Amino acid sequence: MNITTIQKYIHTSPRKLRLVADMIRKMDPAKALGILGLTPKDAAGDLRKALQTVLANAKQGGMDVEKAVFKKIEVNESMKMRRFRAGTKGRARPYKKRMAHIKIVLSDEGKVISQKTEKLKITKEGGNKGRE
C-alpha cells in the first residue's frame, strides 16, 4: 500500500530543499523525522512538516508506520515570483523568488527503491557527448 502527500508552493528554493531531501532519502521515516528536527537548515522544517503529514496520513489509512519506508521523495520546481531590487543609476534589477512542491510516497512493502544516477563521461572535444 502506498500513501502519498504533496505540499505545494513551499517558499523555499528547490535547490535548498533537495540538499536536505537527499540526506534523508535512504533512512526510515521515524529516524528521518528525528534527524530533521535537529538539522540547522530552514529547509529541514518544511520537509519535517511534510513528513509529519504523510506519517499521519499513513496512520489514518491503517498502515503500520514502523514498517514504512520511503518509496519516493521528490522536490520539484514551482512557479517563480518575479521581484525587483534597486540597481545603480535608478534602475531596477529583476530577480526570481523560487518556490517548490514536495511529494513524499511511503510504502509498507519493506524494500527501498533506489534512485538511479547516470554517469557522464567528459571528453576534451565535445563536453558531455560520450556517456558510459
Automatic annotation (TrEMBL):
Part of the 50S ribosomal subunit. Pfam families: Ribosomal_L22 (PF00237). Keywords: Ribonucleoprotein, Ribosomal protein, RNA-binding, rRNA-binding. GO terms for cellular component: cytosolic large ribosomal subunit. It comes from the Bacteria. The globular domain of the protein is located near the polypeptide exit tunnel on the outside of the subunit, while an extended beta-hairpin is found that lines the wall of the exit tunnel in the center of the 70S ribosome. This protein binds specifically to 23S rRNA; its binding is stimulated by other ribosomal proteins, e.g., L4, L17, and L20. It is important during the early stages of 50S assembly. It makes multiple contacts with different domains of the 23S rRNA in the assembled 50S subunit and ribosome. The gene is rplV. One of its GO terms (molecular function) is structural constituent of ribosome. InterPro entries: Ribosomal_uL22, Ribosomal_uL22_bac/chlpt-type, Ribosomal_uL22_bac/org-type, Ribosomal_uL22_sf. GO terms for biological process: translation. It comes from Candidatus Daviesbacteria bacterium RIFCSPHIGHO2_01_FULL_41_23. Gene3D superfamilies: Ribosomal protein L22/L17. This is Large ribosomal subunit protein uL22.
